[in-house]
Amino acid sequence: MRLLNVVGARPQFVKLAPVCRAIEAYNGRNPATPVDNVILHTGQHYDPGLSDVFFEELEIPRPNVALGVGSGSHGQQTARMLDGIEQLLLKDKLDAVVVYGDTNSTIAAALAAVKLHIPVVHVEAGLRSFNRRMPEEINRIATDHVSDLLLAPTPTAVRNLEAERLSSRTKFTGDVMLDAIHFNREIAKRRSSIMDRFELSGVDYAVATVHRAENTDGPRLQQVMDALARVASDGLTIVLPLHPRTSNKLKTDLPQWRPPQNLRIVEPLGYLDMLRLVDGAKLVLTDSGGLQKEAFFLGKPCVTLRDETEWVETVEGGGNIVVGVDVAAILNAVGHWRDKIATGSADFSSGIRSGFGDGAAADHTIKAIVEFLQTSRDGAATLNG
């Protein structure tokens, strides 16, 4: 079986790593019928700090194909991906295309494959923020409805797919990002030197990230940055690895804005450094979906700088407050967490188990894909016979 795994952005690299390990383990158990793992990197994240370093740190096999599409509008970027992926699919025989999450890489690969009648598997299917102004929401919905196998990370995702009459294509696997945390947490403690490099040992600090278009395009950026500055000025150091999109917007839209001393703006970080940084933090402020989960898995309280979240399990599990970008609301949420969880660490294990599975999602993913393809082949053989 030849699988094409399509990735292009940081969260997708993190999800791909445990799937690659699960493929290796499966092949070790089934040497006569191995899975051939073909990796395509679209180049949606083209900065080395957001791309190359993740392949190295997570020990992901180097991509068989790198499209290098780079930046551009949604239409330009998706069109270049569609063209490149379609060319590969036309010349290389593949049994299924596996897509991850909700990026332009996800929808481009799904559309290219389904139009060539190649089965599409969607890892992290069924997420809904119910905010159709988010490009990611459109990508999720469209990908789910053209995919042949929907691998849902949470019970809520399963219910969302059932509501859209997609239950016959749906399997609950749990979240592969939980697998990644389990595998890499201790490795990060051993290998990352970020606590020493940033002189954070013994320092109470928070980690912040801001990158979504809804927060960087328009007036919300001013609100977010002012809120972070207020939190830092009130005595809590903030480490802000700055996404290239946000860095560019600060220069063009807020050229007069300057961070206070306790707001440390740093370059994008590799996965292990970021994991170690969050693991040592008192709390997290973010508009990232992946970081909301990583904070929850690591027992770190989170303040989500959005008006809604697709990861409702982190809220229901008591580890996340969704506040939008109102400065007062952000300050109140930070104060709430500092009072409630003074140590900066909590036990969210019950919510993790009920919401995100058993930590073996990658194994469940490969099993589901193999069973789906075998069933499809058996059905085709019966029809042809």
Automatic annotation (TrEMBL):
SUPFAM superfamilies noted in UniProt: UDP-Glycosyltransferase/glycogen phosphorylase
Q: Which family does it belong to?
A: Belongs to the UDP-N-acetylglucosamine 2-epimerase family.
Domain UDP-N-acetylglucosamine 2-epimerase stretches: 35-369
Q: Which UniProt keywords apply?
A: Isomerase
The protein depicted here goes by the name UDP-N-acetylglucosamine 2-epimerase
Could you state a single Gene Ontology molecular function term?
isomerase activity
Would you say which domain of life the source belongs to?
A: Bacteria
| Originating organism | Povalibacter uvarum
Write down the Pfam families for this protein, in alphabetical order: Epimerase_2
